[in-house]
Each structure stands twice: as C-alpha cells, then as structure tokens.
Amino acid sequence: MPSIKPHSGYHFDLSGGALCLDFANTVSHRHLPQRRAEHLDSYADLVAFADQSKLLPPKLAASLRARANRDPAGTRSAFRKSIVLRESLYRAFTAIAAGKHARPADVRQINDFALAALQHRKLAQTNGDYRWEWRSNGSDLLDRILWPIAESAAELLTSEDRAAVRECRAPDCEWLFLDHSRNRSRRWCDMKSCGNRQKARRHYQRAHA
Predict the structure, then answer these.
(1) How far apart are CA 37 and CA 9, in angstroms?
(2) Which of 100, 123, 152, 192 is positioned for an S-S bond with 95, CB 3.0–4.6 A?
(3) CA atoms of 89 and 107, how far apart (whole Å)
C-alpha cells in the first residue's frame, strides 16, 4: 500500500502567465468556504502540478513518486513547505495586484525559499554549450519541485512584470495572472472560463431585469 495519497486526477489550470502564479492558483474559490476546493491535497498532487507545468522530465517525476513512498516523513515535510510557499505567494501577489506592498513577512518567506533554491543551481556543459541545471544532493530531492517555483517568484518580484499582476475580477474567483493585453485591460484569469461565465451572468440579468 502506498504511503502517500494518490493524485486526485485534477487537471491544473496554467493560465497565470508565470509559474509562481499558477502555483498560487492551486486553490479554487479560496474565500468561499462552502465552495473552496484544495487542489494540492497530497505530495502526489504536487508532482502532478510539476508534471503538467513541464517542470520535470517524466523519469524524474517517477523517481519523486517512488521516493515519496519510501520516505513518508520527508514527503510530509516537503509537502508542508509547498503549502507555506504557496500561501506566501498568494498573499504577496494579491497585495501587489491591489496596488499595495507585499507584507515583509511574506517577502522574507519567499526570499528564504529562493535562497535555498539558488544553492541547487549549477552551470552544466552539454555539447559545448552551457546551461543552468538543478542539482540535488539526494537528501533534499523531495524539495526539487519548489526550487523553480521560488525562482519564478523572485524573478517576478524583481521585474517590470510585477506591475502586470492582476487578480481575476470574477466574484467567485481569486486567481492571479499577468495582464499583457495591449492596454492592460484584461479582467479575467481565463476568458474561456471566468470571462464567459461573467458574460453569461450579465446577459441573464439584463434579460430578466
């Protein structure tokens, strides 16, 4: 019997425009208790998010699943860290989307994760070219998924794209996204879901006014 819960089968929405925002969006209806849906319910879900986000080659994803089953204590620790990082990301970028400063405590938390990630960034040479790679010493392999997410957050916080962070305007959605529309007027995290629902709702209200 596996020592961790299996993947829930949820297909993650990756419309945020930045890895760290997609990760922050792994809760639906966050502020509606009766409808709130947690999409990271286990380490297996975390691996599924990384797999769907193309963070891991299939062989490494399989290795993480196998390692998680062999090391339940390490798995619980890595999963707890993932939720801590996600909540810090959500609070920080929601504040920025509202035109405010992120709380210092959240910035420090993101900074700690980003610094930990940098310790695993190595230059590698392949066929005469050089590239960055993530390297694990083995004992911290289960944290591997968090490193590129933390790097993405640090890069977004320190880039001009920070000003493009938005929160979906749909009243039943709190997802974050980057608004790269021509006049920065995008309102919905995903036009195919939230945008169409809001248009249909307004049409219904006008028709029955």
Answers:
(1) 13
(2) 100
(3) 9
For residue 67 the two structure tokens come to: 């390692």
pLDDT tens string 166-199? 999 888 888 999 999 888 878 888 756 674 444 4
| Cβ 88 vs Cβ 102: under 8 Å | no
Enumerate the H helices of the chain as residue ranges: 19-24, 43-52, 58-70, 72-97, 104-118, 146-157, 196-207
CATH number at residue 104: 1.10.3300.10
Query: What pTM does this model have?
Result: 0.88
pLDDT tens per residue across span 148-159: 999 999 999 999
Q: Is residue 8 part of a domain?
A: no
Does the structure show a pLDDT above 70 at 207? no
- Give the span between the Cα atoms of 207 and 200, in whole angstroms: 10
Does any domain span residue 91? yes
CA distance 66 to 51: 15
36-95 pLDDT, tens digit each: 999 999 999 999 999 999 999 999 999 999 999 999 999 999 999 999 999 999 999 999
Domain that holds residue 80: 19-207
Cα atoms in the Cβ-side hemisphere of radius 13 Å centred on 161: 17
Q: How far is CA 19 from CA 98, 154, 202, in A?
A: 20, 11, 32
